Amino acid sequence: MAKTAHRSQYASTAQLEKFLNQAFQTTDRRQVCLALGEAVRAQNVTTIAVASGIERAHLYGAFASERGPRLSTVTKVITALRMRLVTVHSPGSALERYSPQFPVHGHLRYRTPAGVAELLNPALETSDLRAICSTFGEIIRAQENVAEFARRIQIGRTRLYRSFMGDRSPEFTTV
User: Fold this and answer.
1) DSSP assignment, residue 173?
2) How many CA within 13 A on the CB side of residue 146?
């Protein structure tokens, strides 16, 4: 039986971008991974593999596995798709539930959703894993009660700290 080439349901980059944005807005890791996997197939796995420096076999498995990909895989694929990650304020987010309700100054502003976006977007724009992880680490350390923050997002405090230290590539689920 002959295999037919995967036909993209996305006639344009704008349609693909809309599809990915909808998946990211769900904040459901499985939805995001399925969408990224579909985007890779829609844009040709071999092309994305070459552009991202990730083996084809890994691309197929990374977005279909139960664990999901590492942040490094996601950033490389997003870059290969000629897109970028950005943060936007999401009312009712875990961060917002215990952010101060008054104006803050200096590093304290990184406890607010707008402050987090202000700090994180430049790092995301670079697609540099070290810069992204360092920025996440700074945001975590700026939280008034890291233990409470970790509890609310259901990640152990130690794991949260370690995920964004050094040359590690955290699991996408942690991000």
Assistant:
1) T
2) 14
